[in-house]
Amino acid sequence: MSARTLTPARRAAYDALVAGEHATGKLPTIAFCVYTDDLDEGRGDIYVAAGMGLELVRLGHGVRLVPKWEWSTIDDADVVVAMLPDLDPSVLRAGVRRVAWVRNEVERWCRMGSLPGYHQVFASSSMAVERLAQVTDRVWPEPLPIAADEQLFVLPEPGTTRRATAVTTANFWGSLRDVHKVLVSLPSDADVLMYGEARRAPARLRRWHGGVRSYFDLPAVYGEHAYVIDDVNRSNVGFGALNSRLYESAASGALPIVNTRLGLEEQGFGHLPTYRDARELSEVLTALRADPARTALLAEQTRNVVLERHTWTTRARQLTAALAEGAARYDAPPAPRAVHFFPDYSNNPYQRMLFSGLEADGGYPVPVTDALGHLKTRLAAPGAPGILNIHWTDPILQPSRGPFSARLVLDDFAATLREFKARGGHLIWTVHNVLPHEGKFQWGEIELAQLLADEADAVHLLSEETIEQAAPFYRIEPSKAVVIEHSSYDGIYPTWVSREGARARLGIQPGERAIIALGGVRPYKGLDRLVSVFDELHRDDPSLRLLIAGRPGRLARSARFEAQCLADPRIVAKFEFVPDDQLQVWMKAADLAVLAYRNILNSGSFLLSQTFGLPVVAPRAGAIAAFDGRPQVRLFEPKDDGSLATSIKAALDEILADPTATQEARAAAAALAAERSPERMGRQFASLVAGLDV
Known about the structure:
Layout: H1 8-18, E1 27-33, H2 44-58, E2 61-66, E3 79-82, E4 97-102, H3 106-112, E5 120-123, H4 126-132, E6 163-168, H5 178-185, E7 192-194, H6 203-206, H7 218-224, E8 225-229, H8 234-237, H9 244-251, E9 255-257, H10 278-289, H11 292-309, H12 312-329, E10 337-342, H13 350-354, E11 363-367, H14 371-380, E12 387-390, H15 394-397, H16 403-422, E13 426-431, H17 442-455, E14 458-461, H18 466-470, E15 481-483, H19 499-506, E16 513-518, H20 527-540, E17 544-549, H21 556-566, E18 571-574, H22 580-589, E19 592-594, H23 604-611, E20 616-619, E21 633-636, H24 641-656, H25 659-675, H26 678-690
Helix pairs in contact: 1-2, 2-12, 9-11, 14-16, 16-17, 19-22, 20-24, 23-25
């Protein structure tokens, strides 16, 4: 006998839901925001929404599945459920109840910053509930996991003999998931099969490939096999949020073998076999195949758990009860004011620190990946277009291939921005640099800067020197200028590593003095001339070491510079992004920070050095010039290599050679870091936003 195939009626029910045939009902209408409404595209969120949606329809609700390109136009729903973190709740009309269902990508949901804009938040596991509760107080305390459609995923026809081949349905989308790495490592005689997308997959993965099967083929696939290799992906595995594959294959009578134990006990699956690598998977399969009775018993036990606890029939009742109780519990409206910001440079904590005070004033930050696209989307949505905070302007024009295409982009951006303002939108321009450091189209950047200065409701300056420094290129109206100084990083980075431990990790010997240059390796930072000056100083003082860490640029000269440093035994270099927990090692191992910049307006690196209590040598330029005379600061003329060498030597002789002076300099740096706290900066920016007439 063969496995039971999908009945046309069930597929027709899914099609009817997608077509909008159940958009209204006796009970309130619930709209699920999904990536696509194409049931054949293979996106998991639509099948979860559809499975839940069909049961809500049966309970009397109207249900709509809304694809991404229609999110901003929803005007006929009582409740909107976001299935993806990409939804910006501020685009939804006033009065609609906004709900986030965090099924996966927990950390991305947290990073997106929009959770305070929802009335209620659901999560798939207790661990996810705990994490989300650190971001918003509207997280429903009981997990709301995904489930299985018990009318779609059914047992095969009686008498069906299941194959002992272990099957997985994990698509390959260009990078190896954990299950793919396991399949790649299995011996050639392993009895496994992979269904799903596999274009451009490595040959050792393609050898198991059995073709692409649609979602509605999966009941037959699971019905034909005794074992299903599950793979909780990396965004979920640390939170114990389980896959649809587990629930659906179990409902079809197959036995899931899972790559984690986290979350299994909570959902009643503590009995399931697990694996971590190819060896463990092979051992598990060998043991199960040798004991088919145990396999059948485990499969039946798992299926019973799904049918008792994890069907969409059960889950729809849980959702509606939680929504009803949540409407009373979370009766106050969510944060009303979204601050959209562009670009999202999440590796730099500056934006996170800047926005840290928004929630206290009823706001929340939302990252924007495409400034022009965002403006057009907001203009197409009902209501006022909201607030846009533009930071670095490089990503607007620099991707253009030539001046003609840059001109077209600039004209389109200017016209759209003016319409955005005319419709009641608000613009805050945060000026980090006078102009981009490595801009291809300086004429365009100057024109863009003047446009932003003219159209902005407020021009956020990180230092008072900005207006004067920008004057040769564009004019900033003083009445629009708001100075909110760049904060330190006090309390942002871990600091538990001792100085001795940090120096030992980097190989700095007792008696050696370490100079550090940390941050992205870019021409404007002058690292090439720092190395030259270091050569001169090292001849007179062999105790000197140079520390360089940061992601290199893409220019050929950056590659040459990288090779030069890595070949020099006096230099400790790491040419890649330094994670937050490792940054402390580099900073605590150093004795002196040097910013060899050729030009600068504001510098996060300067404030970073102060956060770690380091004396610093920096250019007499921009905002840094105001620190001249501080005991921990030595300034040099930015265009004079000799001045750089003299200032470094002065710092070595006047600060580091005298223990009392060193202590005084470190105390002054720490005091400056405490004075310019991230909390102060966050409060000041929140006050600026609250003052807009929104």
